[in-house]
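Example record

The entry below shows one chain as it appears in the dataset: sequence first, then structure tokens.
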Amino acid sequence: MDFPLIEPIDYFSGEKWHESLPENVLIFTRLDRQGLDNQSIHHHSRFNLIISLEGSCRILIDRKILYIPSQSIVLIHPWQTFRFLYDNNQPIKWLFFGFDWNNRNDFSENSVKIASKSVVSYCKTITQRYTRDGTGPWIVPYLMILLEELALLPVQNLHTIPVKDEGMDLLLKIQKYILDHLREDISISQIADLCSFSESRLRTIFKENMGTSLGSYIRQSKMNSAAKKLGLSELSVTEISELCGFSSVYSFSRGFKNLYGVSPMKYRIQAGK
């Protein structure tokens, strides 16, 4: 039998497998929509793997709305902002993995994959072991095997997924305007004119779909942009406050601490920048 293997260049230096493994892994489940906390925008400096074992939902990720059907998977990349949108009240069973990972990954941003039967079965095995044994080092190899399985799954064609409706189109239009004008003093009247709605009607439609007020959403969007800049850039706190449209570094720092519980400088230290 032939073994067509490439001869090693160095017999004392091989693959450092530990550098390719996920670290700081957390696992948790959500069994109701209240647990998804769609009252605020989320972002993390980590990967977040979301597996819908039962129940569907729509998620606003950056500038896109993705429909997550039952038994599907989406991977939120570091520093992406996301928010669970209001949907029907059907029960859910969602599995979440949060982790750091310096290695490459085979998930493109803003993509949905449909879970195979083997993936669903494996996820149930993970939850059963977690229920029995709790957290521990065993989670890392289990997650790595799961990621390898998911990498083989095809990306769902987003054009075949029913995410388009008038309310969602309006949300995307508002989202784009906010992200394109973060440096400015954004007013609701400007957005209402852009969307050809009265201010009161716009506020009502937005809250019905997002579960929060438009004014609060604008403030959170500015803060999330600032947090991302703190984590990824060398810009000073003053420069970031200006880029995100705050009138003064003092008002920015105070608002940031109210939202995240720490000062901008402490947040930067915790993010490792």
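Notes for this example: The chain has a mean pLDDT of 83. The beta strands are 23-30, 42-43, 47-54, 57-61, 64-68, 72-76, 81-84, 93-100, 112-114.
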